User: Fold this.
Amino acid sequence: MLKEVRCAIYTRKSNEDGLEQKFNSLDAQRVACEKYIKSREGWVALAKRYDDGGFSGKNLERPAIKELFEDVKAGEVDCVVVYTLDRLSRETKDSIEVTSFFRRHRVNFVAVTQIFDNNTPMGKFVQTVLSGAAQLEREMIVERVKNKIATSKEQGLWMGGTLPLGYDVKDKELMINEKEAKTVKHIFARYLELKSMAELARELNREGYRTKSDIFKKATVRRIITNPIYMGKIRHYEKEYEGKHEAIIKGEKWQKAQELIKNQPYRKAKYEEALLRGIIKCKSCDVNMTLTYSKKENKRYRYYVCNNHLRGKDCGSVNRTIVAGEVEKEVMKKAEQLYEKWGEEWKNLSPGKQKEIVKKLIKGVMVKEDGIEVHSESEEKFILIKKKGNKCTVVEPEGKTNNALLKAVVRAHLWKRQLEEGKYASVGELSAKINIGTRRIQQILRLNYLAPKIKEDIVNGRQPRGLKLADLREIPMLWSEQLEKFYGLAT
Assistant:
């Protein structure tokens, strides 16, 4: 007795035209597949339908085909049947990957109008050729559409997309919306006065202005001011053509706005310059801060600015803009301490390597009203900041660094890590390598048991006055006892 072959029929149509009909294209494909299945002995069409109506064949982001893949994995399908190969995919790469997937799960694949079976060498060859032809057809269609769009834009026709504020569309043509056009004129006029897109966005929102669907953002204002549609032009890539629609903004005002944008001193900094990108946040808004810069007398000044403020939204913090160099310097210091190597080793690292280490060790930099919190996995550092004009700068910490104490604490961290990681098998091996006595090394290693506050104060030069390395030869086990003993030395 022949084994029953369970056949899943997959159908697809690129658009939704005609799908509302009682008997549509998907039904026609299924009927043709069912007839083919009936002609094969032992083959049975599964009742479950795998129909993707309104989905392109250029990728596999389709609900029905994904469901089919899951059923194949579950062993519920023996054969996949389609009307033509391009119903499965119009991309050669996708077609080959899908049919390879079917083979791995021992599932046959058949295209009924192109009579081939992917289990045979000829079927595999035909599949590759037909997939290539389908991809070529799709690419030719894309090219024809591109050419049509280019030609239409050269004629000054609007070819769809997001409808610009100030216009409605009627019979595929742009018509001025008088109410919105007043808003557009107001935006151009105020931009020439304020000279700031972010400030203009905030003002528009405060005064109740809205786009067609949302509040104004800095990016929204930029799109409006740089869109040549408003002076009666149609843009296609780098070229502009005289449009069939009526202009809202006169050429002179448009040109003034473009000149202002061109000479704007504020620019977004390059990606590689932003040491704290993705790390530094505005505490008030709980959003990231972005590195920007301004130019004055050919000198560039770098700042981190709250994203809300930058995009034209309200930011409640007085510290929404902070000088970048100073906060980066403090974060680099913290990373150097956490790296647990003596200063010369850190300094010998390339700037790129130092930045890489900062990203790994520093988990967050939170800009608050009174200062900056620098977070690592194990501890937190607070840095005071002060207002300087419209910007905030870091306050230099008080206190004097005791180099002997600092060097000992850093060495303790470094040696402990090297012993734990197996770089040195014992204190004796470490002693022989660095030419320091084992007793001295053991004394230094005990500094790892100091309370976090004591270690942090030593690093920041805020240790109790008079505290010397010799005072740390005997360290109480409890942190509370350490604080009582060593902070008593300050009096």
Q: What stands out?
A: The CA atoms of residues 79 and 108 lie 4 Å apart. The chain is about 45% helix and 20% strand. Residues 268-272 have pLDDT under 50 and may be disordered.
